[in-house]
Amino acid sequence: MADVRDRNQVRVGVAGATGYAGQELVRLLAGHPHVRLELAMASSASSPRRDLPALAHLWDGGVVPLDLDALTEEIDAVFLALPEEASADVAPRLLARGVRVFDLSGAFRLRDGAARAQWYPKTGEVPSSIVYGLPELRRSELPAAQLVSCPGCYPTAAALGLGPLVRAGLIAGDIVIDAKSGVSGAGKAPSERTHFSECHGSVSAYGVFAHRHAAEIEQELGLSVTFVPHLVPLDRGILETIYTRVGAGTSEDTVAETYRAAYAGAPFVRVTGGTLPVIKQVAYTNFCDIGWKLDTKTGRLVVISVLDNLLKGAAGQAVQGFNIAFGFDERAGLLT
Amino acid sequence: MADVRDRNQVRVGVAGATGYAGQELVRLLAGHPHVRLELAMASSASSPRRDLPALAHLWDGGVVPLDLDALTEEIDAVFLALPEEASADVAPRLLARGVRVFDLSGAFRLRDGAARAQWYPKTGEVPSSIVYGLPELRRSELPAAQLVSCPGCYPTAAALGLGPLVRAGLIAGDIVIDAKSGVSGAGKAPSERTHFSECHGSVSAYGVFAHRHAAEIEQELGLSVTFVPHLVPLDRGILETIYTRVGAGTSEDTVAETYRAAYAGAPFVRVTGGTLPVIKQVAYTNFCDIGWKLDTKTGRLVVISVLDNLLKGAAGQAVQGFNIAFGFDERAGLLT
Amino acid sequence: MADVRDRNQVRVGVAGATGYAGQELVRLLAGHPHVRLELAMASSASSPRRDLPALAHLWDGGVVPLDLDALTEEIDAVFLALPEEASADVAPRLLARGVRVFDLSGAFRLRDGAARAQWYPKTGEVPSSIVYGLPELRRSELPAAQLVSCPGCYPTAAALGLGPLVRAGLIAGDIVIDAKSGVSGAGKAPSERTHFSECHGSVSAYGVFAHRHAAEIEQELGLSVTFVPHLVPLDRGILETIYTRVGAGTSEDTVAETYRAAYAGAPFVRVTGGTLPVIKQVAYTNFCDIGWKLDTKTGRLVVISVLDNLLKGAAGQAVQGFNIAFGFDERAGLLT
Amino acid sequence: MADVRDRNQVRVGVAGATGYAGQELVRLLAGHPHVRLELAMASSASSPRRDLPALAHLWDGGVVPLDLDALTEEIDAVFLALPEEASADVAPRLLARGVRVFDLSGAFRLRDGAARAQWYPKTGEVPSSIVYGLPELRRSELPAAQLVSCPGCYPTAAALGLGPLVRAGLIAGDIVIDAKSGVSGAGKAPSERTHFSECHGSVSAYGVFAHRHAAEIEQELGLSVTFVPHLVPLDRGILETIYTRVGAGTSEDTVAETYRAAYAGAPFVRVTGGTLPVIKQVAYTNFCDIGWKLDTKTGRLVVISVLDNLLKGAAGQAVQGFNIAFGFDERAGLLT
Known about the structure:
The structure is a homotetramer of 336-residue chains.
Chain A: H1 2-6, E1 10-15, H2 20-30, E2 35-41, H3 68-72, E3 77-80, H4 84-96, E4 100-103, H5 113-119, E5 130-132, H6 135-138, E6 147-149, H7 153-167, E7 176-181, H8 196-199, E8 204-205, H9 212-221, E9 226-231, E10 238-245, H10 252-262, E11 269-273, E12 288-295, E13 300-307, H11 315-325
Helix pairs in contact in A: 2-11, 7-9
């Protein structure tokens, strides 16, 4: 397949390639028809070189220590799957050297300075050429972006699930978002709460009234929400159950047409209507599937939004944004 | 241990002993110090006799075809773990023969005739000596009951989690109940939605605006709720996340004291306060654990209520009600 | 990506597109650069048309009733993911019309007539142009094959794991193959043994001394084996632990070199040496990973072979065989 | 139930009460009719006092720092669920003070000095009054034991599954033991290999030719074995598939009768014959279930042995040994 990959290739590097999202990035970029993956780096300069056995035969370049000089030499774009503190430090330095940056951390997601200082205190100045990388909402802004701040997994599901209704002015009640997440969303570092025997056969709520993704969701919706995430015993995927009310007289057709119009040109959003989507149908894909039920007597609306937290909620969405930013087909390397 | 079991023993039968709740009943009753389990029967007269391998050495009497005559001969109490249509038919006939009945089905749970006709159309007359068998709320009524209608798993978690606050007049907003249930709650009959490969790695919402447990929850709380149950990939256990608001000025202490007072004498309810409970800590037990978080600035309250759907949500609760009804220690046979 | 797909495209149909392997076939073929997927059909002529929600935006052609006439009109190759009885009936009729057939069932896997009559009694004549479609062993035969009989999932893991050592004459003891399989290997039809609550938290052995894959394994190895498969509580993947002995004096280097030589040109076999592979690293890929431990004092050898039962064990392997049969890069459409 | 517990009570302490086996011990002993649980201690003197939320209302005494003086004051028996190094140190000191000790660690399991020095180098002198606490094999020795060294989970399943056949002289071939274990067997300390996302959807072999339980199995069987344990994605339970051959002419009846005779008086061993047992039927119980298949033509025998690694493989077995040692019904506190 060398013939395909020789043309129009962007030279790309990845920093933070050993975490779950980082490995997905390496996998996607190594197989991307318009990318030449040059380097996969760890999260720090002191990490020893290591291989990625799961990616053998796909990417045999290993993961080398973080090295900003190497990461900007004959590289056009860098994906950062780093802890937010590291991203806050590294991203501006890469931008200063003229490399386009796709940051998967939360460091640059919040536009409000006070909120950012609360949740991401290590983030300094935010570059002016930044775009919040939710392609379905910001497709036209991406080509000019130097820094693409990729959304969090929970905010992606919420913004795609509820955004069109909010923008259409249909929402007329409090918003409750009950999220169920696979454990890979908690990252790769072992801990008591992600220990197999603690998660298996269990469900746990966490971060009630204190999860920074709530601020990001509220930013994207422009509305206050009650957001409670839960760990459920699966690896990959998120299901959000969104509870609200629509205004009197809002019909099922209005809701359906609002979604249809919003996602007519969106290859990775699938609106399923009254057939509520499940995690299994989006796991290991870049799709976000959205269904809903409306009780027209009371105006109560329940929206179900599902995605794979490591793909549409992280690495896949970053590649989707990259595709648009560089003028490729939005689906390149993602229709697997 | 024969010395213990000779005294004060009630002669008991079980109908519907092959389902998940039925097997739990047999296990609990076979080991109960004040019970002599006489008979375990299937759900129909045409079911062939079979053994229960998982209960070998605990109950070697097997499961025999349903036979009402045998079930009332020298039997003091019968537990029904039957489909609701069967319970609707069998329970009155057992009562007519003077046997006390503990019914785990939904046939007799709804007091409102219209609601009952909608959700349980096969149920005819409801006997006057019926008690809704939620021991923490009806302890004093149970000794006189001839028919104990045991609550559903979802309503138990909801009524225990929210009931004290409702009765104390603290609730001041809409109520959303987002329930996550293990798959054993869907019963033992194979189906596409309970097929392993469909559930594993997935979460699915079901019964939105159309689950009969919503009617039962509303009956017990006396308030309207939005209730959405979900299947999560585990076997046993329910976690309900309950969203509402409390009135202005309601403090954490008020909430804590309300729960404390409500459950001071309840051996099977454990109030965990701000340490939110998880399913794992109640699976395979008869406990219902309740925790909560209050945002005093906004009055938003999130309550987490967890229990094992086959024990506190079914068989264990029925035995607990039986203990009270017959004057035994509420915990007999249940502290395992 | 239209530019890629216009050239050198083979017109393909799938029969049996609603099962787990069938859906994987549709997904792979719909995204294959050298395939034009024309039709996806059900397993019988009486199945109603249905959609595949998980494949929306990838394959929106739905699944139509089985129709052999339509399946051979302007079609170059057909993949059969049918029950073996249906394949035994359909494959010869397709071949007679000049269509190349890739059969995923067991109908044509056994070459010995007596064994075939025992395990696949519905299979009649076996066409002469048949090739057993294990690409790593039959690469050179595939271009001429009209009927490719794709191996079973268990035999693939066993033949790849042990085959090179057998052919090198290194094996000097009994062979025990203990296989652990995800539940998707049992297919999509609900049953008691694949009911979620029966599989979750459990492991079960089945088919002891009576699994037809044992005959297929013995055919491919040319040796007698003891084979016991087990269901383990995961969806996709197989791990086989193979126990045997090597001859006196066989060193680790000899074993390593034997594998290296066998798989030097095999893109989908990864030999991991003493780092034993796990299912997770091959799930959702077409790789078979093989590791081993040798106790040189006693000659005891343990080989671990892992693969995804729906890809390298079914749909992926079929596409790999198709690629070779039609002269494409072996990896086309499979490096995802 | 105080009336029951006042009579014949043994005063008991637990050291190592925070691990998975330790918590099971506390649960069992707190509800044991002949035990007064006096103290539950951590594994070290420096561990802060903590509560056990899952055991609230069953044992509200918390877990206090390890303190040997307190642990021997008015205490009759101590259960040690400590790391083996700690047990090697603590057990002799408790014995010297006249307390009977039930040790769940491996420190004292191996009788051969050389093997013990290899696998448990911290263990010093082994007291003369020691008994290997497998009740089904050593029932008569337990009443006189001062130190009961409780078997490991893997050796229990193997010794119960194969022991009767070995002692009857029926085994005539190599022995391969392929064990599948739930992850709780790996303990409570978080690690990469027990991280949820690494275990979920995966199976992994470990400790090939290098697991100390192999030495213990060989000690109990008196034969050499090939033993490979695997982690499977469940919490509690072990299934061992044991492969061997029986001598020519050994019939199914001979095997069945051998098991029957061996376990006629064993309340916790259930022989299931040709209906192979599964983990689910023993999880959360103290049973070991054993089934088998014999190929009389070839003499190949496959035995399946299942148990709950935290109960029959650890805490339950220790309590069973305690019951026998103190003259109680073997089942006391265990028939749950």
